[in-house]
Structure formats: C-alpha cells, structure tokens
Amino acid sequence: MDNDQNQGNHSSSELRTCKKRGFVWFVTRGLACVVLLAVGGAVVLYALLQSEPEHWKQYQVFLKRTTPEQRETIVADVMAKIESLVYQDLVSDEDFGENESEAYIGGLSSLLRRDGESRLVNPEDVLVDELKTIQLTVDEMNAIVASQLPKWMSDRGYEMPVEIVEPMIAMDGEQLVLAFSYDTEYISQVFSAYFDLSFQSDGMAALSLSDLDAGRVPMPISGMADWVASRGGDGETLARARELGEKIGELEYFEFKPVLELKHCRRLRVQSLKMVGDDKIEITARVQDHQTYKRMNETLAAAN
Are 219 and 228 in contact (CB under 8 A)? Predict the structure, then answer.
C-alpha cells in the first residue's frame, strides 16, 4: 500500500511539473510572438513612413527631368494659354495684318474689333462675362507652384517655413492634395494633406482638411507637431514644428477667393476643378471685366 501511495504522490508531482513546464512554455512562446509582432509592426511602420506616395514620386521625376529655367518657360506658356482665353474677345487676326496681330498679342494694344470694324477703345471698358474651360497637366500646375508660391505667400504676408521643401499639389479623385517634405537635421519626412474643395454660392471657395499622411501612414491632423517633435531636435526646431502643426490645424477649414487678377482689370473666377484622365486638371472659370466682376460680387453678397 505504501508503494501505491508513493507512486501516486510521484505521479502527482510529475503532473504538476508538466503543467508548470507547459505554462512556462506557453508564456515564453507567447512573449516571443508578441516581441516578433512588435518588431515586425515597427519594421512595417518604418517602411510605410519612408514609402513615398505615388504623387510625390511623379513630382520628383518631373523635378529631375526639368531645370528651373525650363519650369519658368512652362509657366510662361501656361500664362500665355490663359491670356489667349481671357482676351479672346478683344482681338481677331482677320482684322489686321500679321505684324499688327503679333503686336497686339504681345503687347495688348487697344485696337478692338466690334461689329465688323476696327476702332480704338480702352480694353478695360469692354464688358465680358463668359465661361471658359482650360486643361492643365499636373506638371504644369506644379511648375506654377514651384515658380509662384513663394512670391504669392510673401505678397500676403506669409513666410514659407525653411523646413518645408518642394511643396506640390495633385488631385486624388475629387480631393486636392498638398504634399511636401519636412526636412531638419533630425528628420526628413514626406507629408500629404488631403483637402475637400468646394465652391460656394457666395463666390468663395473652401478647403476642408480631411486626412494627413506621413509617408503612407495616416495620422491624426492634430498629432503632426507632436510626432515631429518626438523625432528629436533642439528647442527652436521643436518650437517651429509646433508652430507648423498649428498652421496646418488652421487649414482644417479655410476659405479663400478663387480669383486670378489679370491685366486690363480682367478677372478669372474659378468655379470648378476636376481630374481628367491620369494627368490633367480641368479648370472651369468665368472671365469678367472689372465692372461685371464687381456687380456679381455685390449680387452674391446680397443673396447670402
């Protein structure tokens, strides 16, 4: 009987030992899996952070295959294309000789065709209110951004942060995308801000920030400054990062007047943007003289 009891105790001891070993095995393997998942997740997160979105890759290709001088030429060609639409009603080549026509297109003389005859008038007094459509490639739009954005900001009292490098725009479906690289000695990260663009009944346009990505990783709009600050830096770098985060936060809803002012007091009032194909943006705009533009503003203000 004693032998049976000893055998029973021995079996119970072995069972407890096995259970203990099984528990230790389970915990050890479980912790190993957690560590592997954490490491794998960190690697995937890092890869996504460093992965450039497609619109940024295309923009880098454009920058590499063009020089600043070539981009300035692109901008000049775009402005000539826009002006040919804006001033289309002011000139007809059939009414004067080749040299006169060239002089008009180049210098916008005041020789004007009206009712089959040519007479001298002031182009600013010619009334116009017409819808026009123009298609620009994404590269053309970004050539304008690269050439004109710093001056546009400076004229309105804004300063481009030195940390923002190579800002660009793109269209993603119906959304407008603003992308840039944020570069300091501690971090180099591509950010993409996605905006809903709407044109309102009072003549204003509105941008509503809906999403913000770091590389290809979505992040809270309010969390950009803290994320940048977490990468490290001195006091001034961190302060500038928080200031930029605040400015981006202000863009969660932003209204502006979608109007381009041109020579001879003409206005180009943009009314819609849409993507056409893979690389073209179609812009529909109303061409107006300054008097018609003013009256329309007054009418819109009274209606709203």
Answer: no
DSSP per-residue codes, the chain: -HHHHHHHHHHHHHHHHHHHHHHHHHHHHHHHHHHHHHHHHHHHHHHHHHSPPHHHHHHHHHHHH--HHHHHHHHHHHHHHHHHHHTGGG--GGGS-HHHHHHHHHH--SEEEETTEEEE--GGG---EEEEEEEEEHHHHHHHHHHHHHHHHHHTT----TTEEEEEEEEETTEEEEEEEEE-SS-EEEEEEEEEEEE-TTS-EEEEEEEEEETTEE--GGGHHHHHHHT---HHHHHHHHHHHHHHHHTTSEEE--EEE-GGG-EEEEEEEEEETTTEEEEEEEEE-HHHHHHHHHHHHHH-
Q: What pLDDT shows up at residue 231?
A: 66
Q: How far apart are CA 25 and CA 31, in angstroms?
A: 10
Give the span between the Cα atoms of 11 and 62, in whole angstroms.
Answer: 76
- Total count of residues recorded for the chain: 304
What pLDDT, on a 0 to 100 scale, did the predictor assign at position 119? 54
List CB contacts of 62: < 8 A, sequence separation 6 or more. Answer: 139, 142
Phi (first) and psi of residue 50, to 5 degrees: -85, -10
Pick out the chain residues at pLDDT < 50: 1-8, 15, 19, 23-27, 29-48, 93-116
Question: For the segment 175-214, what is each residue's pLDDT rounded down to a tens digit?
Answer: 899 999 988 777 788 989 999 999 988 889 998 988 889 8
Percent of the chain with pLDDT over 70: 70
This prediction's pTM: 0.72
What's the pLDDT at 168? 92
Six-digit token pair at 192? 């993409």
